[in-house]
Design a protein that fits this description.
This protein is of the alpha+beta class and about 600 residues long. The chain folds into four domains: about 100 residues, Immunoglobulin-like (Sandwich); about 130 residues; about 110 residues, Immunoglobulin-like (Sandwich); about 110 residues, Nucleotidyltransferases  domain 2 (Four Helix Bundle (Hemerythrin (Met), subunit A), Up-down Bundle), CATH 1.20.120. It contains nine helices and 30 strands. It starts with a helix and ends with a helix. Keywords: Membrane, Transmembrane, Transmembrane helix.
């Protein structure tokens, strides 16, 4: 008999050790760690015990396109219970790069558990195999983004254009367009052309009728030779696609689909400029230009100024080369030029003029020639180098001192005509010679009322600090009260979150459900795992809460559970929020 008792005792200890040995697990799992910007990422948060106050991470670099979806698995195998609860999110990346999904947290059995952060690498768009059985197949076949490059084999610094056209089948509707990845034009000087006023046009794509929109235009000037890549443009589209179903009036029902499309990469082969005939003073100008050098005046007096302008106008890479410098006689004082650009950029490239304006001040009387200035460029039309030269300009300084080296130059005359300084009798009148001082009354701080107050105040504060400390100790020792206060704070927090999330069905009802659960924890002193509709009804009835109020509370909880699977508008959400607040207020008044 004693042996049987020992066996029973060992069995109980073994069973208890098995039950207590199941440690809490809360992990984050991702469907992939590397994906293209046109793909989707699934993130699951799994736990092996039920918990409260689940807080997901901030998916700042992703767009939540689905979720949170909640699933619960509870099974018994050979007397062993297996429990798993999962929160699932479906994410679309906003941009390329390596991003970290931060920690999620949950409270299980009074302890806070957090997941381990995970790094996700988002690359450029990838090719996704098409599945004819996929519901999104029609959208993939009826929407295309095309990048049209005007010239695939340009010269260095020659303008090329890229036009992005969005082709859409006439049977598909578009609700929204979101640019999720803009091409980075490495090794190009680029200018994006405004396309806000572009209208939808009719055209053909692969021999079929389509509508198309010119979504983006860009002018590029290659800055390197060889093979250069133009990265793809990626868009996220909200579409309405026809289905095989019809309504009671015979009209085709539409299905809403989100699709990410990409224009694909383009390779440009850039030719170097020919070395044959290249001028030594060539600074990289490519295009078709006119050259002009002009002076604002050719006759003036010494110490007056004139403006000497060097201008290039035409069509080409106007912003990408330097104007030639001007060489002037040493007797002309010259200031640094003021550079000005009046350039417009269109699909034809840069057009306009650039100028360098020099301020020139002659110092002496005489005639000064400004020599010819030349400008060389590579002409795209003739595919050869050309040189343009200006005419010589003669500056005639009419009046002023003679320059050094002439017979009229007399240094003593130039520097000896100084005006004498005249002193007046009141030259130092601004200095005061008499003062008007008055005595300052001096007050002493020592032994004043303020002195004694500041001296005794720390001693008077000691009893108050002891009282506050004792109150805090009593409050910390009140475990039940602290739980209630914490739950009440969470009620206010999640009700506030629910109010801010009006219009967002998933987020609103999750926040509202958390608020209701925390309210029950504070009011009825039960945990989330013990919450059932029958138990909640019994506990509220025992506290003398009216049956209609109890039924309203249960109906709100049921609405939160079913809201994820039924279409609900914002008016219904507002009604549920107000009903939840009114019901909580009635329970507070009636509960005893």
């Amino acid at each position: 008999m004693q042996i049987i008792k020992h066996i029973y005792f060992l069995l109980i200890v073994f069973a208890t050790s098995l039950a207590s040995g199941q440690s809490v697990e809360f992990v984050m799992k991702t469907s992939k760690q590397k994906l293209g910007i046109n793909e989707r990422l699934r993130v699951d948060f799994e736990m092996n015990q039920d918990g409260d106050n689940f807080n997901p991470p901030d998916f700042s670099n992703f767009t939540v396109v689905g979720g949170p979806n909640q699933s619960v698995s509870n099974s018994w195998v050979n007397g062993v219970r297996t429990y798993k609860k999962t929160y699932s999110y479906f994410l679309a990346p906003k941009q390329r790069g390596t991003f970290t999904i931060s920690q999620a947290s949950i409270v299980i059995q009074g302890n806070v558990y957090k997941t381990t952060p995970k790094k996700i690498q988002v690359t450029a768009a990838v090719d996704i195999p098409k599945d004819p059985n996929d519901p999104k197949y029609l959208a993939s076949e009826g929407v295309h983004l095309v990048a049209e490059v005007a010239k695939a084999n340009p010269y260095l610094n020659e303008a090329i254009t890229v036009v992005y056209k969005l082709y859409i089948s006439p049977t598909i509707g578009v609700d929204g367009i979101n640019e999720i990845d803009s091409p980075r034009y490495h090794d190009f000087w680029s200018q994006v052309i405004n396309t806000q006023n572009e209208k939808v046009q009719n055209g053909t794509y692969n021999g079929e009728n389509y509508r198309f929109l010119v979504y983006k235009k860009a002018v590029l000037y290659p800055q390197k030779t060889g093979e250069l890549e133009i990265e793809p443009l990626s868009l996220d589209l909200s579409l309405r696609v026809p289905t095989n179903r019809r309504d009671i009036f015979g009209s085709i029902l539409m299905s809403r689909v989100n699709r990410t499309i990409s224009a694909g990469r383009k390779t440009i082969k850039v030719k170097p400029l020919p070395e044959e005939g290249k001028p030594q003073d060539f600074t990289g100008a490519v295009g078709t230009f006119e050259f002009d050098v002009s002076a604002s005046k050719t006759e003036l007096d010494a110490t007056e100024s004139l403006q000497l302008k060097i201008a290039v106008k035409g069509n080409g890479n106007l912003k990408l080369f330097k104007l030639p410098k001007v060489s002037l006689p040493s007797s002309l004082e010259v200031y640094e030029p003021e550079h000005n650009e009046d350039v417009r950029t269109s699909l034809a490239g840069m057009q306009g003029a650039i100028t360098d304006s020099y301020t020139v001040v002659p110092q002496y009387k005489g005639k000064y020639p400004i020599p010819s200035v030349s400008f060389s460029y590579f002409d795209i039309k003739t595919k050869s180098y050309k040189r343009l030269s200006s005419e010589e300009i003669l500056i005639n300084v009419l009046n002023g001192p003679a320059s050094q080296g002439t017979s009229n130059n007399n240094p003593s005359t130039i520097s000896g005509n100084k005006q004498a300084v005249v002193l007046s009798g009141d030259h130092f009148a601004f200095i005061k010679t008499k003062t008007d001082f008055s005595a300052i009354k001096q007050d002493y701080f020592f032994k004043t009322k303020t002195f004694w107050t500041l001296l005794l105040l720390p001693f008077l504060a000691i009893p108050l600090a002891i009282l506050i400390r004792n109150k805090k100790a009593d409050r910390d020792a009140d475990v039940v009260g602290n739980k209630i206060r914490k739950a009440n704070k969470l009620v206010k927090k999640y009700l506030s979150h629910a109010k801010k999330s009006l219009g967002q069905k998933e987020a609103f009802y999750i926040a509202l459900e958390k608020a209701l659960h925390n309210y029950l924890k504070a009011k009825l002193h039960i945990e989330t795992s013990d919450m059932s509709k029958d138990k909640i009804t019994d506990l509220l009835t025992d506290k003398n809460v009216e049956a209609t109020v109890v039924n309203d509370f249960i109906s709100i909880i049921e609405r939160c559970e079913l809201a994820r699977y039924t279409p609900i508008d914002i008016a219904t959400m507002q009604e549920d929020f107000e009903k939840a607040g009114a019901t909580i207020s009635l329970i507070d008044k009636q509960a005893r």
